[in-house]
Amino acid sequence: MAESNDWREAKYKEIFEQEIRGINRRLKSDPECKIDDLKGILNNLYILEGADHDGRGTLQDTVLSATIAAYEQIISDLQAEAK
Question: pTM score, two decimals?
Answer without folding.
Answer: 0.90
